Amino acid sequence: MDALFSAINLSKTFKLKKRSRGLGSHQFVKAVDDITFDVGIGETFGIVGESGCGKTTTARMIMQLEKATSGQMIFQDVDMTTLKSKQIKNMRRHVQMIFQDPYSSLNPVKTIFYLVAEPLKIHKVYKSQSELKDKVRETLNIVGLPSTDDILAKRPDELSGGERQRVGIAKALVLDPEFIVADEPVSMLDASVRAGIVNLMLELKELKNLTYVFITHEFDVAYAICDRIAIMYAGSIIELASSDEIIHNPLHPYTKLLLDAVPPLRPDKDWGNNIAKGECAYYIQVPSGCKFQGRCSEINEACTGERLPLVEKSPGHFVACCNA
Question: What percentage of the chain carries pLDDT values higher than 70?
Fold first, then answer.
């Protein structure tokens, strides 16, 4: 598989504010801690984990909205971490992002035409207004929205949540990028609308030959759209495999817990009993060994030793667990 994008030992550290001037030293949190993965051309690579695990920080680093503390991000043989401002602008013709919240990601005072045409204006793709409007209309039609003058003149608050997210997708697609980072694009939509957006993204992948990094905390959505899934916990990738392997043959105790937390169609009295204590850790002082050790029911002495690397247990199935 030829990689379009590679993250190599990628980390992001945030400095915490001191409680009082002159008291104590600065403390740091590793939101993303030394992760490595490849995204193949035409692949949908999923990142799944609970809130606070570092998924969105990873997405923002790929888009250069956050600067990586260390590591590399290779896109089309170029290390994105070394790019200057003008080079980052040029890069964004090829890499675009679909944001989680369609209510806050679109400027509420601008028209739909302005919002979708803005990337074209920034990159000076079209010189004439007629060409610009034709491209906007074409892109709106592709994402399933009418391109009438009435729609172009509307503002985001006149649209439903699903329609707003389609505008956000149109805004990401209008430059014809090869690589899309989708940060929980359906998590804030009604259940009745989600399937339509997921199906749209699958259709666009085929139509536009797109490659996705798809971030979510919902296994049903990840299973529907992703080719491979990385499970993220406390800034680290602890399991990585095909979507079928992750769903039907999970190896890491944390992955099993995430799957057990998905409500069945008809919950019985036993559902919900297998729950880990506490919430996703955010470490100022990272423990040695497995980061999940404080919540794991299968902990043993080996879990508290050296940090566990991802090990290939079967072809294409990697896990960082001494019990797997």
Answer: 91
